[in-house]
Design a protein that fits this description.
Blueprint lengths: L1 H23 L2 H8 L2 H29 L14 H26 L23 H6 L2 H8 L3 H7 L2 H20 L1 H9 L13
Helix pairs in contact: 1-3, 2-3, 4-6, 6-7, 8-9
């Protein structure tokens, strides 16, 4: 019963996080409807979205203690040290990208402001370093917990974070106009863009 309830809550938290995160990245579009208060509203949406983001980690820990009775092994069949090494190898660059993105975005990470200009730093190379860093974190936790089910489940965050990034870019085009369109031409979404002879 605990295992099944935990999965229901896990799915609910993923949906809630996704709903409020998508709402949080649309301040410019929302401003057209309700005025400048939209930026404060989107900050509130971002805070709400962060709550299930952390609760999902608790779901993972509960699943470790109370796994579903399904035809998947409870643990990976190879030595745990291999899995932990892989998790660490993913975690280090992921944390760097996430923390560097937070540093270079500043307050905009949580609190969008109308007067904010485009970011510098790592954002001059890629447009979504925070998403690229964060998207691996659930997979890393699943690997440290040595859980095949959670590892497979964590894959759903990759299309979700891609969708979040697309929605954010839609709003940034409204917010910054041609400046952001030009910026997109010069930078990669998640990987640096290859320089051409005309660049």
């Amino acid at each position: 019963m605990i295992a099944e309830l935990n999965i229901v809550l896990l799915l609910a938290f993923v949906l809630i996080m996704s709903y409020f995160y998508v709402k949080s990245v649309g301040p410019a579009a929302l401003e057209q409807e309700i005025g400048e208060v939209a930026y404060k509203k989107c900050e509130q949406y971002r805070v709400i979205a962060s709550i299930p983001f952390y609760l999902i980690v608790l779901n993972y820990l509960v699943y470790f203690l109370y796994p579903l009775s399904i035809p998947l092994p409870r643990h990976f069949p190879w030595d745990y040290n291999l899995t932990a090494t892989a998790a660490t190898a993913i975690l280090i660059p992921s944390l760097y990208l996430m923390l560097r993105g937070v540093k270079d975005a500043g307050r905009e990470t949580i609190s969008p402001r109308k007067e904010h200009s485009l970011y510098g730093g790592i954002y001059e190379t890629i447009r979504h370093p925070q998403a690229l860093g964060e998207v691996w974190l659930y997979l890393v936790i699943a690997l440290f917990l040595n859980s095949p089910f959670l590892t497979l489940f964590s894959l759903i965050f990759f299309p979700l974070f891609y969708y979040f990034s697309l929605k954010e870019e839609d709003d940034l085009v409204i917010r910054y106009g041609q400046t952001y369109v030009d910026y997109k031409e010069k930078t990669g979404m998640f990987l640096p863009k290859r320089k051409t002879e005309t660049d």
